[in-house]
Amino acid sequence: METVEFILPDHWACALINSDESGMDENESKAFDAFVDFMVKKYGSCHCMDVADDSNFVRYHDAADFGVLACDASTFTFAI
Asked: What is the pTM of this model?
């Protein structure tokens, strides 16, 4: 099985693992949905398999292109 890793905001974990976006505001939800659309277009799916226990406050991460500012982020692993 092939995987790909991204450094993503910790507050996306619940949405990525449990498909629960209930804690997101409108802007967070738009950024998250843009990331999911990117994953589906590029890899054909958006199935998060794991989140590493490596959370750090980072200025640059893989969600920056979707409008997410500096935040606590971790390594998320996706099946592709």
From this structure: 0.94
